[in-house]
Design goal:
single chain; alpha+beta; Copper Amine Oxidase, Chain A, domain 1; 3 domains; six-stranded antiparallel β-sheet; six-stranded mixed β-sheet; binds zinc ion; N-acetylmuramoyl-L-alanine amidase; hydrolase; MurNAc-LAA_cat; AMIN_dom; Mao_N_sf
Length: about 475
């Protein structure tokens, strides 16, 4: 208690003693700490993004007195306070608190080289009460009267802006499950890491249980599939008579285990196939000869599987814009937004080749789509040219079979960017050449052009490009 009071006093002194930062935030939003207005710093206003109040990182450091560290290369924010460590990464909803994975409602973002972070989530993690008055646009931070030593986990389901995964071993070295799909009586699980699944058949009711040790769901799994705050979800299966549904959950955190259950209408045999190196695909195939029901029905009239590919990643930044922005970040932002929209489509499954700033070989991207027997493959990029005047939107195909998809996607994409229409073009790109399904590569705009670059890094443009991709995919697949 004494220690807490001292800390609180130091925090308040810190606020009072820094008159140089006394101006109000540039925006209309205000932040009060125990009734006292805080400064946003650097003239970057507080923003309301999807109902998450985002504040400049510097404000946290200067006004709340938390220890804040920023890693420019990995775009990672580390915040330490009261022995607790939190890590957030720009454009990623997966964060960690003391090594445990946490899913944020809104990812940290960059504005004019200032990192904005969700204040509610951070405040609540460190024991502050956070209130938002939407009429007056005021965020109120209230320090607790009596510190609660257990103010740690377990309150994630409140309005905390995030979900705290129950405690267990640290989330390092865990395999990350990126997505699943069910096609032709096969459950495919895409993941990164080394996993030996344990698969067993159970009866009463009939089901197949797949346990993946040392695994958890990546942030992108929740973008592609239903996943509730307690990390449970369900894939509705309607087109396969043998299967009534597929359930999944983070079954245990000690040790970390993800469990998939294929609920069966009739007892089935199965075979398991594992392929890939660091990006793995586990396929549980129900087409194996059944001891009970000898008729196999690999119906393929069901859900469609779309693989979305964010170009480049990690050490490969892709094109670098006139003001130094990286193509890889643009590509990923658009792909995550498109995946979020596609999740709402009940006839489409989506799997992403990458869900964060990781590096993936081109052949692994194509192999992932081929192994999954995806119906469509769409890669998002931004272009660059020696001429700073070059501007506009292009869509590329490599194989004849992809041309119709390219035409449909381009129609919506051009409308979404509002940039000049540079047409549907042939391009000998690896990922659209080596994939076996209709595949296109979108060059949304030119990062070498000042106007295009600025536009491409706006939330509005990224949202409309994502929406245009969904429109194109649905029209091409004939889904209403
Ligand atoms: Zn590119």
């Amino acid at each position: 208690m004494k220690k807490f009071a001292l800390m609180l006093l130091l925090m308040l002194l810190f606020v009072v003693v820094l008159p140089g930062h006394g101006q109000a935030a540039a925006g209309q939003n205000k932040i009060l700490l125990d009734g006292q207005e805080l400064t946003a710093g650097q003239g970057v206003p507080v923003e309301n993004v999807n109902n998450s109040i985002m504040v400049p990182l510097r404000m946290i450091a200067e006004n709340l007195g938390y220890k804040v560290d920023w890693n420019q290369t990995s775009k990672t924010v580390t915040i330490e306070q009261q022995g607790k460590t939190m890590q957030l990464i720009v454009n990623q909803t997966a964060a960690s608190v003391d090594g445990k994975t946490v899913i944020l409602n809104t990812a940290p973002l960059l504005r004019n080289n200032t990192t904005l972070v969700p204040i509610r989530f951070i405040g609540e993690q460190f024991g502050l009460t956070v209130k938002w008055d939407n009429t007056k646009k005021i965020v109120e931070l209230i320090t607790p009267q009596v510190p609660d030593p257990n103010i740690d986990t377990g309150e994630g389901n409140g309005g905390g802006g995030g979900v705290v995964v129950p405690p267990g071993e640290p989330a390092s070295n865990l395999s990350m499950i990126n997505g699943i799909s069910f096609n032709e009586n096969r459950l495919s699980i895409a993941l990164e890491g080394n996993v030996q699944p344990s698969v067993s058949k159970m009866s009463g009711p009939d089901r197949i249980v797949i346990d993946l040790p040392n695994a958890t769901f990546s942030d992108v799994f929740g973008s592609g599939q239903a996943l509730d705050p307690n990390l449970n979800g369900k894939l509705e299966i309607t087109d396969y008579p043998d299967v009534s549904g597929i359930r999944y959950s983070l079954y245990s955190t000690d040790p970390y285990t993800v469990r998939f259950v294929i609920d069966l209408n009739t007892a089935k045999n199965y075979s398991v196939d594992i392929s890939g190196d660091s990006s793995k695909l586990i396929v549980v195939d129900l087409n194996a000869q059944s001891t009970v029901d000898t008729s196999t029905q690999p119906g393929n009239s069901g859900r469609k599987l779309v693989v979305l590919d964010a170009g480049h990643g990690a050490k490969d930044s892709g094109a670098v814009g006139v003001t130094g922005k990286y193509e890889k970040n643009f590509n990923l932002a658009v792909i995550l937004k498109a995946a979020e929209l596609l999740k709402q489509e009940n006839k489409i499954d989506v799997v992403l080749t990458r869900s964060d700033d990781t590096f993936l070989e081109l052949k692994d991207r194509a192999a992932m789509a081929n192994n999954l027997k995806a119906d469509l493959f769409i890669s998002v990029h931004a272009n660059s040219s020696g001429s700073s005047a070059a501007s506009g939107t292009e869509t590329y195909y490599q194989r004849e079979a992809s041309k119709a998809l390219a035409n449909v996607m381009h129609k919506y994409l051009v409308e979404a960017t509002g940039l000049s229409n540079r047409g549907v073009r042939y391009g000998n790109f690896h990922v659209i050449r080596e994939t076996k399904m209709p595949a296109v590569l979108l060059e949304v705009g030119y990062l070498s052009n000042r106007k295009d670059e600025a536009l491409l890094f706006t939330e509005a443009l990224q949202n409309s490009v994502a929406a245009s991709m969904v429109s194109g995919i649905k029209e091409y697949l004939g889904i209403q």
